[in-house]
Amino acid sequence: GLLPAELPVAPPQPTLGPLATEARWCRRLDNIRVRGVLELRRDDALRAREPGEVMFRKYGVSGIAAFNLSRLAQPGDVLAVDFVPAVEAAAMADFLRERCCRLDAVLGRAATWDDMLRGMVLGPVAEVLLDAAGLRGGAPVATGEVPAMAAVLKGLRLPVTGLGDPRQCQVHRGGLRASAVDVATCAVVAVPGLFVVGEALDVDAPCGGYNLHWAWASGLLAGRAAVARMAGRPESKERAR
Predict the structure, then answer these.
(1) Can you give the residue ranges of every domain in the chain?
(2) Which of 119, 149, 182, 198 registers the highest number of CB atoms within 10 A of its CB?
(3) What is the pTM assigned to this prediction?
């Protein structure tokens, strides 16, 4: 295109958007929002953890937490949805056992899994969690079933298949490698007079205004340096002003 062929340029790719996952559970939760934590795992090792809103879609998950993880996720990774981030994973089973005892006393009968999940998660979410744990909502809670429910509450597993809807992505990564420009002016070192800014450089960041700041800041740096060059002033003096 517009850059000399010898410059290091990575193909542009959309990012900071929703993630596509195995749709078995997500399809049933389409358009439901929860506040929790998304964990990104690769080869069973935790790679990143993002708290915030998670919005389920037919194809996977959206929301800020998913957007931020999309910068790191690869097909074959696993998203684990933590629906009860206030309770540590190691304490979840004990939390459920205590909840069951309290409900037994209040209800005057053996609590069911429907009783246990009511008020903890939305109804459609409870149905999916019960299926994922292999439990029946109307059945009384059995002690041996608690670990299975604790596991899905703290980490419903969604295998990643790729990026979700690219049209919803907020930025593109790729472009000219940042190492090819002067960091103080965004001037291409190998091509005097050429400046590259914003998404044309291979720079991206998570949600929070960082990408907008980068676009404006790099544009200002390059603009001032370009004016100084046209005026015949040394760029080093322009940087110091």
Answers:
(1) 17-168, 170-240
(2) 149
(3) 0.84
